[in-house]
Amino acid sequence: MLPVPARIVPATPEPAAVDDTLAAPVPAPAVTVAAAPADPPATQGAARVATAAPSSPAAADAAPPPSRPHSLAWLLLPALGVALLAWWASVRRAWQLRRQADQLARQQRSLKSAHDQLRQRSEKLHYLSMHDPLTGTLNRQAFATELRARIDHLAKYRQPLCLIVFDLDHFKQINDRHGHQAGDAALALVVGVAREHLVSDDLFGRFGGDEFMIACGGSGTAQAVALADALRAAVASRAPQAKPPVPGLTLSLGVAQADPQRGYDADELFARADAALYAAKRRGRDRVVADACDEGLPLPDAVRRHL
């Protein structure tokens, strides 16, 4: 609130005294100033503020601007720095996690590859331990194991099982005359023909050299003899057309049966089938002979072998 200016009240001149002396000075009229009413405290404060305010535009321009925005910016800078550091730490952590994930993925692929290789090697070793490397048939030990398991199973149901033991006639002469390559070709021919005549449940193994064994579960002697004769005829007819040809290749086969009357002993079954094979050799080869016990043939100790 602005101060109220003092009111000036003109004084009424009094009549001058008549003086004889004209040279006496005339007094100046007195001016009476009426005191203005006292301002309230708020008015006094406003007056002080007005007094403190700059008295010229130049002074107003020279005054510094308010410092509040600068103070706010300085307060935000640390918060911004902390946010940037947190962002950088999160980015770096994400990069490290992605790198570790990639390393783990590579390690898992490497382990899976190594596991697959070990599994393949194990399967290959297992196959080689049970199969003949030249012909792919079961080897002697694997065939004996499978034969005993098959006989034990059939014995529970009193079912028959026939064993065919055969070899190639004059195989040594084939090797001597035509070489071991021709001998291997003859073995491959016989194995191929046998596989064509066998079913999936039949066991097929190599006893050793040029001797092979076939086990037919659930088949009687008549069926086994028919199968053996079919093998003999097929080999004899296809040997001349083989590559390389093996003319004159024939088979001698012996057949024996395991049943409740003859028993289910695997070694005894093999001995009877082997004796039948020996009888086929003595009779001129290129033939099939059934169980020697049925024909009353003795089992010579010189030819008695075991699985």
Features of this protein?
307 residues, alpha+beta, Alpha-Beta Plaits, five-stranded mixed sheet, two-stranded antiparallel sheet, 8 helices, 52% helix, 12% strand, disordered N terminus
Task: Please give a quick description of this structure.
The chain is α+β, with helices and mostly antiparallel strands and 307 residues long. Helices cover 52% and strands 12% of the residues. Among the domains are: 97-130; 140-289, Reverse transcriptase/Diguanylate cyclase domain (Alpha-Beta Plaits).
Query: What is the terminal separation in angstroms?
Result: 132 Å
DSSP, total strands: 7
Fill in the CATH topology of the domain at 140-289: Alpha-Beta Plaits
Q: Which CATH top level class of the domain at 140-289 fits?
A: Alpha Beta
Overall geometry: elongated
Mean pLDDT: 81
User: CATH superfamily of the domain at 140-289, called what?
Assistant: Reverse transcriptase/Diguanylate cyclase domain
How would a textbook summarize the main sheet?
A: 5 strands, mixed
- SSE topology string: EEHHHHEHHEEHEHE
Show unreliable segments: 1-6, 15-26, 28-55
Rg estimate, integer Å: 63 Å
Derived from helix and strand composition plus strand pairing, the structural class reads alpha+beta
Helix content: 40-55%
Strand order of the largest sheet: 4-5-3-6-7
CATH architecture descriptor text of the domain at 140-289: 2-Layer Sandwich
Counting DSSP H or I runs of 4 or more residues, the number of helices is: 8
Percent strand equals 5-15%
